[in-house]
Design goal:
The complex is a heterodimer of chains A (about 350) and B (about 130). Chain A is built from seven helices and 20 strands. The radius of gyration of chain A is 20 Å and the shape is globular. With about 130 residues, chain B is α+β, with helices and mostly antiparallel strands. The chains are: A alpha+beta (about 350), B alpha+beta (about 130). At the A-B interface, loops of A face strand 4 of B.
Chain lengths: ~350, ~130
């Protein structure tokens, strides 16, 4: 079992720790609902150092990545970040990730649970003009998310803050940081990459800087309910069992050649929908989605929405059945869920 | 509700407050902590007969649904309706947040006192 450099700090903050993809991570510090609300109303701070970072170099790197990823890498300029899928030949994603165009190469930011499978895939597709390394264990990652994130960071950074899906390099608390305007919550926010030895200093620095804005440390529990409200996919739930087209991620699928492209149907036979209920039942991954008793799909993720104060879920249903107003979701009990558009919470 | 050290307990992490011919039941601090943020409490109907060791209701948290087991036999005479709108009270005040009141025939002999319950919790942690 691995620990991030902030393990002791999390414990001192009273975090309930859980095993997430082989690393001890904070599930919550006080309450998932309170941490979620803090991010929606002012600011939250997340340790997401368990995620993976791969550094790609070489004269062939741009073309290689453009061939492997669903998003356009050819026109990705230094300072830019883009979301994309790394797919198998059959069109199924191995991971969803962010690709950063650096001055001297690229950085891929990948899910903790998929570090090994991504590396295996890259090793299976070598290119003589590309070299890459797994820098995950040397790289720390903190996310500052919420409407007050900008106000918190602005006085601390010497340059104008980057725009959404852009990054810059700066110094914070005496440490080098790659600061990107990205996040997984649906709020304005930033993700900060640094060397692991700088994690504790930067975590403490940001918590102090955000004090005037009532910043809260936030764990993986809130991270999940936030991304769900924002309609964002989670690998293993909305991706992996399903491909990018089924997930409705057309924006991440560029009109170009890439591995798995031909397997992606123009009109998928299953599609992702949003569901919400007035009943007192949370839908969970694996629950059946039915119409008049007939099974038409499966819930991929579900939770209680702290913002809407009702159960919300994402599900995949047969395309032919994807336009109904109401479905029955069958878990332990059965309850009616209304189809709603994503995201559940718009900003 | 007064002192949790004066309550009785069962291994399934419910507490029991005994009166003359009735009992109040709730879940312990250990139970609420394991559950995480509670969002729904599915209380039984008044008049329901419950039997020791059997599931008589459930509590849904953000994490999962958890069954709650009857620590003794009885008939439900009251339910704590406040918890329907404010289920989070169970997290913040587990010993104040009684779930049901039961009319009971006899006082059961095999309920745990506080120290014995703490030993159960410690053993589970190992």
């Amino acid at each position: 079992m691995k620990k991030t450099a902030l393990y002791e700090i999390h414990q001192n903050l009273g975090a309930k720790m859980v095993d997430y993809a082989g690393t001890w991570m904070p599930l919550q510090y006080s309450s998932i609902l309170a941490e979620h609300e803090a991010v929606r109303t002012h600011a939250g701070l997340f340790d997401v150092s368990h995620m993976g970072e791969l550094m790609i170099r070489g004269s062939g790197a741009r073309a290689w990545l453009d061939h492997l990823l669903s998003c356009d890498v050819c026109n990705l300029q230094a300072g830019q970040v883009r979301y994309g899928l790394l797919n198998r030949d059959d069109g199924m994603p191995i991971d969803d990730l962010l690709v950063y165009a650096l001055n001297n190469g690229f950085m891929l930011v990948i899910n903790a649970a998929n570090i090994e499978s991504v590396c295996t895939w890259l090793r299976a597709h070598p290119d003589p003009h590309v070299s890459w390394e797994d820098a995950s264990s040397q790289t720390g990652l903190i996310a500052l998310q919420g409407p007050d994130s900008k106000a918190i960071l602005e006085p601390l950074v010497a340059q104008p803050l980057p725009r959404r899906f852009r990054y810059l390099r700066t110094k914070l608390a005496g440490h080098d940081v790659l600061l990107s305007r990205t996040g997984y919550t649906g709020e304005d926010g930033f993700e900060l990459y640094m060397e692991t030895h700088a994690l504790a200093d930067l975590w403490t620095f940001l918590l102090n800087a955000g004090r005037a804005y009532a910043i809260q440390p936030a764990g993986l529990g809130a991270r999940d309910s936030l991304r769900l409200e924002a309609g964002m996919p989670l690998y293993g739930h909305e991706l992996g069992p399903y491909d990018g087209r089924e997930a409705g991620l057309d924006f991440a699928i560029a009109d170009k050649e890439f591995i798995g492209r031909n397997a992606l149907a123009k009109q998928p036979r299953r599609v992702r929908i949003g569901l919400r209920s007035d009943a007192r039942m949370i839908a969970r991954q694996g629950d059946l989605v039915c119409l008049s008793g007939r099974v038409v799909g499966t819930v991929s993720s579900g939770t209680y929405s702290p913002t809407l104060k009702c159960p919300i879920a994402m599900a995949y249903v047969a395309s032919a059945d994807a336009k109904e107003a109401i479905y029955e979701v069958k878990g332990r009990k059965t309850a009616p869920f209304k189809r709603v558009s994503l995201p559940f919470v718009k900003k | 509700m007064a002192d949790y050290q004066k309550l009785k307990y069962v291994k399934t992490h419910e507490w029991v407050e005994l009166f003359q011919d009735k009992a109040r039941i709730g879940i312990t601090d250990h139970a609420q902590s394991s559950l995480g943020d509670i969002v729904y409490v599915n209380l039984p109907d008044v008049g329901t007969k419950i039997h020791v060791g059997e599931r008589f209701m459930d509590i849904e948290s953000v994490k999962a649904v958890s069954d709650i087991y009857a620590p003794l036999d009885g008939v439900v005479t009251a339910i704590n309706e406040q918890l329907l709108d404010e289920p989070e009270r169970i997290n913040s005040e587990p010993y104040e947040s009684w779930l049901i009141e039961l009319a009971i025939d006899k006082t059961p002999e095999d309920l745990l006192d506080y120290d014995a319950y703490i030993r159960v919790v410690e053993e589970e942690a190992d």
